[in-house]
Amino acid sequence: MESLLSAQRRLLAQMPTLTAQDILPLLAAEGRILAGDVRATVDVPPAAVSLFDGYALQAPAAVGLHGAVLGTSFAGEAPGVLPNLAGFWRIFTGAVLPEGANAVVAQESTACDSADQVVLNEAMKPGAGVRPQGADSRCGAVVLAAGHRLDPGALALLASVGVAEVAVVRRPRVAVFTTGDELVPPGMPLPFGKIYNANHPLLCAALTRLGAEVVDMGVLPDDLAAIQSALSAQAGQVDLLLTSGGVSVGDADLVRAAVASLGVIDAWRVFLKPGKPLAYGRVGTTPFIGLPGNPVSTFVTFQLFVRPALRAMQGADAGLDLPPVQLPLAEAWRSGDRPEFVRVRRVRAAAGETALAVFPNQNSGLLSSLAWADGVALIPPDVPLPAGAMVDYFPFEGWLS
Fold it and tell me: Could you tell me the pLDDT band of residue 161, with boundaries at 50, 70 and 90?
C-alpha cells in the first residue's frame, strides 16, 4: 500500500492548472483565488499619522516640558504647521502629523498647569506614537501574491491600497455523481433493502464550501453503459469528474471499468483508515477521482485528496504541509494496522485543558459520528496511546475552507 503523502503528491502532479480568469469587484471575490500578483496603488498610510488621541510635538522632549496648544488636527484634515517647537498640537487618532512634529504623546501622559499649558509627564523619542508613511503598504509593492485565497482580511487589505476589482481564477467545474442500485433520494419512499443517498449531498455541499461549481449528475444505477454515457457526456465539459462508490474490486463496482473503457484508470490502495480504496484516472483529457463508498471514507478521502486537488488546480498552495494542532487524548486509544483518522471532539478535561474525546464506534458507515465530531485525529498504527497522549488534530473548519 502507498503512503498518504506519496499518494497525495502523485495525484497533485497529474492535475491540470486552470488559466481562465474572472474579473470581479471586491465584494464578489470572497473565497476566490487570486490569478496574479496585486500591487498597492498608494502608500498606507499615505502620511505619518497619530496612533491615538494626544498631542503632537517635536522630540526628543524631556519630562516637564510645557507649552501652549498651537492647533488641532482631526483625521481626514490637511496637516497643519507646528510653529513653535516648544509647543504642542492637539491631535486625534488617524490625523496627519503637523509639519515640524515627529512624535505624539497620549493625552493621559500629560497634565495641564495653572497657565493652561500642557505639561509632559514622560520623555518622548522621535517616532513615538506615530504610524509612519507606508508602514502597512508601499505604493507599487506586491501586497498579495497569485494563489492567495481571498478571505475578509485579504479583501480589506486590497481595499486599503485602492484596489476595486481583482482577477481571480475561474471556479473549477466538478461533475459529481454517486452510484448504486441500492440508493434512493431523500424524500422518496424507501423500499426494503434500499438506503437513502447521503454521499451525494455530502459531496455537493463540500464542493460548494470549497468554491467549486457543481454539476450535479445525481445517482447512476449499477449499469456499465449508463455510467459510460454519463462520464462521456461530461468529459471535456468540466474540470474534474468525481464519484463515490464503485471503485473497489467487487462485481458491482463498475465505475473503474467504465473509466478504463473511456480513458485510463489507476486504482490505489492507500495506507490509511478509513478510505483505503481510491481511484484516479482520465476520461479523455478530463481528470477523474473515484472515492470509496462508505460515507465517512468518502468524507475523509475528499478532504485529503479532492480538496488539495481543487486548490492546486487554481494555483493555490495545496496545503499538504500545513501543521496540525497538537492536542491530548481524553482517553486511551489504539489504532489497527494502518494510520487512522479517528473522529474526535474537543472537550474540557478535568484539569481544565482542551482534550479530544473519541467517538466510541469508528465504523466508516456511521454518519452520526461526523455530525458529532468537530475534527479528526491522526493515530499512528499499532501504538497504544494512553489518555493525555498528544496527537495531530485536524479541525473540520480548516478542512472545509
Answer: very high
Domains and CATH numbers, the chain: 4-18+171-313 (3.40.980.10), 21-42+138-169 (3.90.105.10), 49-131 (2.170.190.11), 325-399 (2.40.340.10)
Rounded to an integer, what distance in angstroms lies between the CA atom of residue 317 and that of residue 321? 9
The mean pLDDT of 270-294, rounded to a whole number, is: 89
- Please write the tens of the pLDDT for every residue from 66-83: 999 999 999 999 999 998
Residue 243 bridge partners (DSSP):
177, 290
Give the whole-angstrom CA distance, residue 276 versus residue 287: 20
Q: What number of residues does the chain have?
A: 401
Nearest to 259 by CA among 228, 293, 236: 228
Cα dihedral sign, 234-236-240-244: positive
pTM given for the model: 0.86
Give yes or no for a contact between 170 and 22, defined as CB atoms under 8 angstroms apart: yes
CB 245 within 8 A of CB 180: yes
CA 171 to chain centre: 16
- Res. 378: pLDDT tops 90: yes
Would you state the cell numbers that stand for residue 211, as one nine-digit string? 468554491
